[in-house]
Amino acid sequence: MRKFVILLTILVLFVGCSVKEKPEFLGVENIKILDATSQNVVVSGDAKFKNPNDIGGKLRTENILVFINDVEMATLVSQEFEVPAKDLFTIPLMVEIPTDSIFSDKSIGGLIGSLFSETLKVQYQGDIKYKVFGFTYTYSINKTENVKIKL
To answer: How far apart (Å, rounded) are the C-alpha atoms in residues 101 and 110?
Structure first.
C-alpha cells in the first residue's frame, strides 16, 4: 500500500507540474548603447519571454551575432539563465564591441553615414535555447533597430 501512495503522489506531482508548452518568445526590445569609451562600445537589449508552465528551466544564448550597420562586429556569449515558473521575464543581451573594429576599413563608410544621421543600425541574429527535463526548444532571433547616437 505504501508503494502505491508514493507512486500516486509522484504521478500527481508530475501531472500537476508538467510542461504544457514551451515559453513564448515575445521579442527583443530596449536595444541601446549603454556606454561608449575610446576602447569599447557596450550595446544591450532584452529578450522578452512569457512562461505559462508550472516549472522553469534554463535559457542559453547560442552564438548570437551582433551587427552594426550590416557589418558583423561581435558574438554574444553569456551564462545560462534560470526560467521562472508562470512569469513574464527578460534576459539581457549585452555585448562589448572594441572601438577599433567599428573604425575598421569594412565599416568606416557606414559609420560616417551614421554620424550624419545620428543613428546606428544594430542587429541581433542567432538562437536562444530553452532546456527542461531533457527537452530542448530553439528560438531564432533576428531583430534590427536603429539606435540614436548621442553626440
So the answer is: 13
